[in-house]
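Folds abound. Consider this:
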Amino acid sequence: MDTRRNHSGRSATPSILSSDVKIEGDVVSEGELHISGSIKGDVVAKKLILAEGGSVTGTVEADVAVIAGNLAGRLTATSVTLAATAHVVADIVHVSLLIEQGAVFEGFSRRVDTIEAAADDAPSPQPRLSPPTLVESA
């Protein structure tokens, strides 16, 4: 049973940005967003699926994020999955993080109990003391 509802009470259909779509600017969705194209800007969605071949350069905020494409910037989500085809150069704030074998992740990850708590105690930007870690699974 699909429990996703829009403001009118009907089931919400995922928004799909196809591979031929290129956006320079911010994208906001109150529901599920599938990206196969390219976005240079910030993305906010309840659930984000960044497909293989898709890319986002910017800040991403979601409850659930499934990354199979390219992400550069920052990702904040309760649940994060980096699929085997993911190439992520970003700092990630998460409650749950799953990195599949084959995924590339370069950056910092920070686990928090709740995303709201992370926003409340966000540290002021500080210079990095060590270079980012590169994680590659074969």
Remarks:
- The two ends are 37 Å apart (CA to CA).
- The chain is about 5% helix and 55% strand.
- Helices lie at 115-120.
- The chain has a mean pLDDT of 85.
